[in-house]
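Give me C-alpha cells for this 361-residue protein.
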Amino acid sequence: MEDFLTFSGPVKLLIVEQALIEGKSKSPKEGQRKILTRLIFNENQQISSELKESSTVEYEYNKNNQLVLITEKEKTGSLIEQTRFDYEGTLLIKKEKISSDDSLRECREYKYNSNEQLILEKCGSRHIKYEYKNNRIEKEYRYFGKEPELALIYSYDNHGNIIEIKTVNSTGSLIRLEKFTWQEGLLTGQFCLNENRVILKDDIYEYSCFHDGNWLKRIRYTLKNVNRRDPVDVIYRSIAYSDHFPEVRPVHTSNSEILKEEKQALSFSDGSSYRGDLTDGKMNGRGFIQWPDGSSYKGEFKEGKMDGKGILTWANGDIFSGTFVRGKMEGVGRLRWKQGKTFYGLFEDNRRTNQGIIEED
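Here you go.
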C-alpha cells in the first residue's frame, strides 16, 4: 500500500480502488472496483482519518506535528484498538497498541545512534538491528532469540530507490530475493524468488493517466509464461486537491452608477470604463472593461454582465479564459496563476472544482 500513498501537491482526499481483470487472456475485462482505502489529509499534508470498509481510523498529532495517537473504531462507534506514540524530542521511542479492553497488546521500543538513526527496534523477545551506509539502511538483522535468524540486505539506485532486498538466514544462505525497477520515481517492475529459485512474482506496472504529476491509473501485468504477460489488476486513485492556490473572486461586484455614456463607451462612478457594444445603455454583445485596480475583461456581455466567452485578467497577473454566466465563471475554462501553473477543467459559481487537471508551466 505504501506506493499508493506517494503523491505531490496539496491533496486533501485520496481514494484508492482496485479492479481485478476477469475473462480469458484474449478478451480481458475489468471486474467491479473495490475500495482499498479512503484517506483524508489535514493542512500539513498528514493523514487525519482513514475510512475503511467496516471501520474508521483517526490520527492525532501534537503541536510539533508528531503523530501521537491512532484510534480505530467500528462504524457503530465501538473501539477496536488504539496505537500510542511517545517521543524524546524529535525521536520516536515507544509505540504501544492497546486493545478495546485497555490491555496492552503490543509494545515496540526504539533506540538511535548519535546521528539520530534508528539502530534498534524491540518488541518483546523479538528485535531488529539496523546498519547504515551513506545514510541509508544497508542491513537489517532480525532476532527471535540471542542470535539473528534472518538478515535483510538492501541495495539502492542513485535516486535512493530500493532496487534489491536480499533475505538470508544465519548461515548466509539465500531465503528470498526481491528486485525492483524504477522510472522517473515510479515503480515499474517487481521480481521475487525463493530459496529454491522458484519465481514467486514477476510483474511490471503501466501508468496510463496522470493529474498534476500524480498517477491515477496503474495496470499490473504478470508473467504467465516465457512469451506472455497478462493484466492482473488495475489500481485507480482519485485525488481531490485543497485550496493551495488563490481562488478566483469577482472583480466588479458593485452596480456602480453610469456617469457618462458615449458612442460605444461607458464611464462608471467607481472609476471603471467600458468600450464595446451597447443596447439601451447596457453592456451587451462584445466589449472590454477596465477596473481601477488594473483588472480587466474582454469578451461577451449580456444585460450589463460578463456572459458568454471571455478572458478575465486580474491585477496580479492571474488569467482566466472560458465561459461566464451572469458575471460568474461557469463551465469549462482555463485558469493560469502568475506563478506558472495552469488549471484546465470545470468551474462552478466562480470557483474551480476538482474536475480538471493542473499542469506545470
